[in-house]
Amino acid sequence: MTESDGATSSQKCDPYAVGYEECENFLRGVEEAMGTENSGVLYALWSYPAQLADELSFKEADMVTILQKPEGSDWWWASLCGREGFVPNNYFGLFPKVRPKSLC
């Protein structure tokens, strides 16, 4: 989800652009695959300090395993280094964040 308007990636496809349906279908498929493909492994795109006892803290680039995706919930049950807890699903990606290298 984007911070500016809370839209998911599939909602960012331009409905007036050529290939809109393909864009939306592809990105919706990626959204659905999150936490189920690749044995449930996802990568943290940002750090998150747990706010409640049942939440799981993680750092950017941590590799977590999604154990449960409750229907209609923005919080998934995950494990990291032998610990388990709820994580906000919009902090993760299928791949780690790529940082640009300096040209100098």
From TrEMBL:
UniProtKB keywords: ANK repeat, Apoptosis, Nucleus, Repeat, SH3 domain
UniProt keyword annotation of Acyltransferase present: no
MF terms (GO), sorted A to Z: p53 binding
Xref: InterPro entries: Ankyrin_rpt-contain_sf, ASPP1/2, SH3-like_dom_sf, SH3_domain
Keyword hit for S-adenosyl-L-methionine: no
GO cellular component, one term: nucleus
Subcellular location(s) of the protein: Nucleus
Domain SH3 span(s) in chain numbering: 37-97
One Pfam family from the record: SH3_9
PROSITE patterns the record matches: SH3 (PS50002)
Highest taxon in the source lineage: Eukaryota
GO annotation (BP), single: regulation of apoptotic process
Identification of the protein by name: SH3 domain-containing protein
Protein species of origin: Eleginops maclovinus
